């Protein structure tokens, strides 16, 4: 039998790993530097995909218990990047990396601390 609580925390740890990766990838860059650096753009894009995939793996119960996390938006971003990769707006990806990723990391660390 699946232990949802344990599995959910594994997915959360995967997300936290990728939030740390994203922050390391963009460290020392400004928006212009990010937009010029294809390797970093692709690395951040891939980490966002992994975050979305891990979010998809989190149980519905866990998502409902933690509505402070924008699960649908995270998964939608993953789906967009995966299926519309030629249309990715890297200025938007930059904003996600700067604004949303650190906020997500803080919220998830609080959840893990309380678990």
Summarize the structure.
This protein is an all-alpha fold and 115 residues long.
Note the main attributes of this structure.
mainly alpha; 0% strand; 115 residues; globular
Outline the structure in words.
The chain is mainly alpha-helical and 115 residues long. The model has no long low-confidence stretch (mean pLDDT 94). The two termini are 20 Å apart. The longest helix is centred in the C-terminal third of the chain and has 25 residues, at 90-114. The protein contains six helices and no strands. It has one domain (4-114). It is globular, with a radius of gyration of 14 Å.
How many helical stretches? 6
What order do the helices and strands follow?
HHHHHH
The total of beta strands comes to 0
Look at the helices and sheets and give the structural class: mainly alpha
Estimate the helix proportion, in percent. over 70%
């Amino acid at each position: 039998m699946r232990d949802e609580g344990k599995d959910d925390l594994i997915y959360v740890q995967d997300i936290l790993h990728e939030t740390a990766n994203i922050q390391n990838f963009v460290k020392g860059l400004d928006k212009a530097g990010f937009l010029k650096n294809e390797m970093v753009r692709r690395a951040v894009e891939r980490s966002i995909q992994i975050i979305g995939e891990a979010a998809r793996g989190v149980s519905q119960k866990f998502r409902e218990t933690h509505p402070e996390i924008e699960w649908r938006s995270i998964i939608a971003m993953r789906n967009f990047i995966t299926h519309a990769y030629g249309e990715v707006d890297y200025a938007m990806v930059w904003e996600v990396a700067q604004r949303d990723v650190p906020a997500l990391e803080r919220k998830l660390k609080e959840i893990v601390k309380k678990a």
